[in-house]
Design goal:
alpha/beta; 5 helices; five-stranded mixed beta sheet; flat; about 40% helix
Length: about 180
Amino acid sequence: MKISWVMKYSIILLTLALLTACGFHFRSESNYPKELRYLYIQSATPYGEFEQVLHDMLGNSNITIVTSPEKATAILVISTNSVNTSSNNVSSNTQLRQYLISISITFSVLTAHGAIALPPHTINLSNQYTASVNQVLGGNTEQQNLQEQMLHDAAFRLSLILGSDLTRQGFANVEKNTTAIK
């Protein structure tokens, strides 16, 4: 049985309608508030691994990362950026160790004039894996890969919050309060 072009076209349209109805969008597609157009990232470790991942991620969207707060329309303040690794023995002969990687990122968003548009938010991620002592002594790429994936995930979550209605509402409230004072 041959499917007609009308049926194929209808299936494609129905699929697209369902995807958009559930909120699906591609990662590269972004819809950030206009106030984030020129963003300065303020951090104790401006050239840290997380900051570089975030810089690349936001730079690939409609946000321009600027090098000084004077050129910014908004400031992303990363007040906490920590990566911790801890381990436990899993087996009685201590050949296997279980590792826990934890990442904590606390950030807020300020307007160019220093008003708080988005109060501090924290992203906490943790993941565990098991490795033999030999893997650890030979260089543990599993830990490095897992940590890198978690940093990308944290940056993606932060970018989702920046593009959220919460951030838009924060900028609108600052604008409303500023207008009311004038």
